[in-house]
Fold N(6)-L-threonylcarbamoyladenine synthase.
Amino acid sequence: TVILGIETSCDDTGCAVIDGTGRLLGESLYSQTALHTRYGGVNPIFAHELHHNNIDRAVTEALDKAGKTIKDVDAIAVTTKPGLILSLQVGAKYARYLSRIHSKPLIPVHHMEAHALVSRMYHKLELPFLVLLISGGHCLLALVKDIDDFLLLGKSLDNAPGEVLDKVARRMKLRNIPEYSQLCGGKALELAAQKSTNPSQFEFPLPLSKFRDCNFSFSGLKDSSVRKLIQKETEHNVMGDGLIPEVFDLCAAFQLAVAEHIAHRTHRAMMFCDKNMLINPENKAIVVSGGVACNNFIFQSIEHVGSKMGYRAYRPPPSVCTDNGVMIAWNGLEKLKKQCDIRTDFSLKEVVPEAPLGKNIISEVV
Ligand code: ATP
Ligand code: FE
């Protein structure tokens, strides 16, 4: 079996070819991060144009690296939801075109389900397991009951953590530090935080601490951090490069606050799963995925709550935490094995910009 995966939901054109055992045969990634970082966020028009320019060579490159041609492919998996509509359309249209002219089955993939499930390609993970998805557009806690059956336990009421890390990095002008100029905000902030010597001079309140659910909120952290920042800026003179003197400490303190909040809500989800016996007590696992899962500090804080609650923590390799074609191909393979949502009738027409993960949302979970 050979599966081709195509991802274009946001600002990365990613393709991958895997075999029936889940071995990666070839992949390609045309990332637009550096460009969008320069403009302060993803521009949907630019993103669409770049996907359009890159999609053909991204697919060809992945197939070439795999030593395969489109004729060898048994099914084409493509992200159809959620994401930027113009971006999604490029991948979906291209996949539809390939499927039509080469008579290949098409498998629509939910981007967040793909983030959640791809860990199974790297680790032996039995269902059900708990998943924490932390990325540029989402913050979700869910129980993965089956590859197409998710129970949503909590989500962000406002911003996503990646979005907030990117915004704070921008406000702190981390891009003016030459080593960080090409990095996404989240990565720059993680590296800057490592240079901190006195993070405890800044403190942030724990969001939603009184709420007995698994939801998240990052807007307060973002705004209180900004308030402190402005305060500092008026007290001290900013340096020539636009950086404030305590920039590293503020990054570390902010990262700690984000990590503590995520760990706190994850702890609640673990308590909920344990209390309601939703997870096999012999086999308790939490998967962390999405771009922010690359952050070692945040992942370690999840490992820490996990170890207290008897959950082993897993994450895919960094390049598979952020957007990529591998996770789409993997999701295609799992769906093909289960014969779930395989389209052979050219019925795949629409892409969907907003699509919830899971059937249920429980507000008062513990
Ligand atoms: P979504 O998956 O919700 O649609 P997205 O696809 O834009 O959003 P991803 O590609 O999964 O998001 O992740 C991108 C985000 O990950 C960015 O906000 C980026 O700052 C963040 N990120 C990447 N590396 C790190 C890191 N080391 N620490 C923190 N955040 C990081
Ligand atoms: Fe993503």
